[in-house]
Amino acid sequence: MFVLPDDDDRQFAVTLARGLEMLRCFLPGERMLANRDFVERTGLSKATVSRLAYTLTELGYLRHDVEARKYRLGGGVLSMGYPLLAGMRIRQIARPFMRELALQIRGAVSLGMRDGMNMVYIESCSADKRSDTRPDVGAVHPVLRLAMGRAWLAGVGPEEREVALNQLRVGVPDQWQRYRPQLDQAMRDFAELGACFSHGDMQKNIYGIAVPLSAPVDSETLVFNCAVMDHTPQARALLDDVAPRLIAMIANVESAAGLRQTVTTTPPRYPRR
């Protein structure tokens, strides 16, 4: 649902915001949307949706299927996002460390950033390319359901966290009510253990362990996440070992990226949960 800013912000371009909100209406697995879908998901009038859809189509961000009378995302959306990914040097630096850890834990290691109510995956490596634990680059999942999202909330400063929490309370009240206990536990885990956890909240039989980088990269708080299937051999035994290995990997990535001075060659001591 499209919501205007609370204050009278003369710098806020409402028409631009409405157009971008329409592009955000597409969910994973949805190839096409009709005007009525945009109306339902944004709360905008039919006339406004029709005008914005026409403009976005002319600009290449939407494509109109005449026979189906529906819209699909256009190539402009993809080309607009690629410079962001290509410019993230941390992805190239982290990739070999992520691949090594994925092999060690027999799971997947991912890197993500927050976008509103969701976390977006910007890099991912897996011990098995066919593994269900490995998300695609560009995949989005709700902040509150992921260890990665909880680690982002734990890792940012108090003011930024409070703003994000208020947005989540208002924007996704059902998720807020359902996952608030897990979020509270994640905050305690992060304070005590330096990592946040999840089990089955996003996908059945998947353990998630997440840790944010200690310093922002290009003004963004990035989070590394490990995913291990709980029915694989040694999965449960690995859990006590995954978090310290992830923390050690992040220290090495930060050192390689010039974010810290020392290199960690062995996992730190880590109390059992």
UniProtKB/TrEMBL annotation:
Residues 76-259 form the IclR-ED domain. GO terms for biological process: negative regulation of DNA-templated transcription. InterPro entries: GAF-like_dom_sf, HTH_MetabolicPath_Reg, Tscrpt_reg_IclR_C, Tscrpt_reg_IclR_N, WH-like_DNA-bd_sf, WH_DNA-bd_sf. The keyword Plastid does not apply. Keywords: DNA-binding, Transcription, Transcription regulation. It comes from the Bacteria. It holds the Pfam family HTH_IclR. Residues 13-75 form the HTH iclR-type domain. This is HTH-type transcriptional regulator TsaQ1/TsaQ2. GO terms for molecular function: DNA binding; DNA-binding transcription factor activity.
